[in-house]
Please model this.
Amino acid sequence: GVPPLRFAVADAQTFTAAIRKYSSPLYGETIVTELYDEQATTPGIEAALTKLAAQARSEDTVLIYLSGHGISDLPQVGINRYYFVSQNVSSLPTLSREALSENRLIELISQIRARNSFLFLDTCHAGALTNNDAAKLGNDVGRFVLAASASVQEALDSFDGHNGIMAVAISRGLAGDAGPDRKGFINNLNLGTYVQEEVETMAQSKSWNQRAVFKISSDGAQPFPLAKVGP
Model:
């Protein structure tokens, strides 16, 4: 089987709590869907994203956070792309049949009509998705991608005994550390740039080599607010 991560669930919960606290006040309605442990299967994730695509309108903002194992470039099992290792994956040889492939993930996200969307990949080797030519997220997919690690890197499971590096960095950024724009908002650009820099610094403090990858996938992508600094 696939060894469990100690803090994948905690990281997703920390992200959700930060979004509820800092982002929700900026929007008229916030709808949160959470899939943990046995819920986070490939069919479960596919169903949730399909439902999201049916609900989201063009004027909405959509944030997607995947926390868990990520694998890429395993030629011994015929894999040369990014896979999110969902709960139903029983072994590496069955990975290509059971996991959520980057192509399927992109297909599902491309159905979401929201003008503003941000995909967070808090896994090992997450940068592989943004490096693959087949995974260039164009105008109709997810405008912004923040990967917790480069394509050949493993993400540190624990930073402080409670969360991994990326979850801590996102929380700090939304709390104000990312720095506001001229209107006093922490937007997607501020957050992505901050987390990209902070992850590497935090990893170095643990003698770990990890850098986040922040990708803006559309020339016409615009900043959108995620938190408000001050009253």
